[in-house]
Design the sequence.
């Protein structure tokens, strides 16, 4: 597989992978860094790439694993900064976006951060990337039923969390 | 019948909506103004999703990735290129060093010869060689007056001159084009007064010289070495109307002094 063919396969999905990484890492630079790592690993394994059913599924899996690894080592390295991560991520947005979404988006992001990784991943793949359940199944290896459950739990949890936050504020 | 938003929402939270329905929901919640209050809390998630979808890689990501992805050819080429540039630098450095060494060798090989010849000249025939060289008749064209004066002055370092050097000095005294060189030769010859032929040459030169300066110096020199035989020539000079008065006076004075010396010794 030469570079041209590789890029043809990677180019359509690299923005997806980037968004996925951003969702996990909450930071543009880290996400791009992680994505670069993933793509380089894919490139160095390009001989075996054809044996996989779907390069995209593989790439998504790799990205997810890499991001989780990084989060783990990151948390181990400096779990003190965890509180800052949200605000750091928020500051990556344009000022206009920040103003527009400051409240609800920030809260939503924090809530998503608190979701279990599986729910996070399923929600992201389904809602942001519009994967079908079959595609999610391919990526995560979960059964369609489990995916549905995870998705439903994630959505409900976000809704409940959001409502709770708002109520909490309203009570104030 | 088209399901209402509330119905869709309920199914959405159960994870049972299709992608199409979810898109409807997102589109609906995109316009915050038209959403009834009781639905507002749900908007946030859809808005988050919509904004998350907008996430794009930075434009230079691909180029940065390309640089990393093509390590073999690019880096190999880069390495080769770097090698050549490094090679060029190295070559330049080595060439510089070689040139330096070669230059050093060249000069050190030359200068020993020069040093040797100088040594020979100064040890074997001190100053004589260079005097001979510089004052040689055929060398006049190539040497400057100051060279010749310098050569003549070098003769002062000699304790005694051989016939050849005195002859050279005499030649210079008589025939050099430059007055100063002749004067220097004259003074040098006075030092070798005891050499054979020098006194005669000085007397003879007195007859030849036309330059008053040289004439005066010659008269002084002849008086100083008490050359009595010059008295006749000096008297002749004193009587010569064509020479300067001062020279004639000096000649007369010299002749007088010499005849006195002659008288006192006889």
Sequence:
């Amino acid at each position: 597989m030469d570079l041209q063919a590789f890029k043809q396969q990677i180019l359509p999905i690299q923005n997806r992978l980037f968004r996925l990484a951003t969702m996990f890492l909450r930071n543009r630079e880290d996400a791009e860094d992680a994505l670069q790592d993933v793509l380089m690993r894919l490139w160095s394994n390009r001989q075996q790439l054809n044996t996989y059913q779907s390069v995209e599924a593989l790439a998504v899996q790799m990205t997810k694993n890499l991001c989780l690894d990084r989060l783990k080592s990151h948390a181990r390295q400096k779990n003190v900064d965890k509180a800052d991560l949200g605000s750091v991520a928020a500051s990556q947005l344009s000022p206009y976006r920040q103003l527009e979404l400051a409240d609800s988006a920030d809260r939503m992001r924090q809530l998503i951060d608190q979701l279990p990784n599986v729910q996070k991943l399923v929600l992201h793949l389904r809602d942001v990337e519009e994967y079908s359940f079959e595609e999610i199944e391919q990526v995560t290896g979960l059964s369609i039923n489990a995916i549905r459950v995870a998705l439903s739990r994630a959505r409900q949890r976000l809704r409940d969390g959001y409502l709770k936050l708002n109520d909490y504020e309203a009570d104030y | 019948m088209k399901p209402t938003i509330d119905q869709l929402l309920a199914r959405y939270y159960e994870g049972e909506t299709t992608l199409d329905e979810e898109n409807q929901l997102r589109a609906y919640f995109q316009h915050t103004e038209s959403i009834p209050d009781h639905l507002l809390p749900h908007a946030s998630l859809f808005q988050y999703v919509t904004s998350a979808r907008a996430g794009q890689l930075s434009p230079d990501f691909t180029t940065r990735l390309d640089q990393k992805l093509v390590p073999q050819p690019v880096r190999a080429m880069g390495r080769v290129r770097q090698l050549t540039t490094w090679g060029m630098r190295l070559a330049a450095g080595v060439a510089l060093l070689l040139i330096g060494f070669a230059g050093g060798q060249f000069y050190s090989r030359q200068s020993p010869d020069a040093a040797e010849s100088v040594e020979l000249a100064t040890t074997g025939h001190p100053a004589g060689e260079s005097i001979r060289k510089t004052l040689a008749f055929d060398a006049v064209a190539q040497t400057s007056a100051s060279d010749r004066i310098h050569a003549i002055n070098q003769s002062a370092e000699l304790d005694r001159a051989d016939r050849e050097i005195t002859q050279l000095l005499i030649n210079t005294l008589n025939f050099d084009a430059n007055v100063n060189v002749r004067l220097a030769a004259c003074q040098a010859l006075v030092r070798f007064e005891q050499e054979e032929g020098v006194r005669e040459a000085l007397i003879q030169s007195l007859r030849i010289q036309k330059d008053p300066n040289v004439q005066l110096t010659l008269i002084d020199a002849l008086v100083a070495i008490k050359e009595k035989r010059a008295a006749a020539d000096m008297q002749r000079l004193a009587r010569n109307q064509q020479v300067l008065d001062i020279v004639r006076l000096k000649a007369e004075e010299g002749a007088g002094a010499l005849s006195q010396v002659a008288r006192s010794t006889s």
Q: What stands out?
A: The interface with chain B takes residues 3, 6, 11, 14-15, 18-19, 22-23, 28, 32, 35-36, 39-40, 43, 97, 101, 104-105, 107-109, 112, 124, 126-130, 132, 147-152, 155-156, 158-159, 162-163, 166 of chain A (CB under 8 Å). Helices of chain A lie at 3-25, 28-44, 55-78, 82-91, 95-114, 117-128, 133-140, 144-171. Chain A has eight helices and no strands.
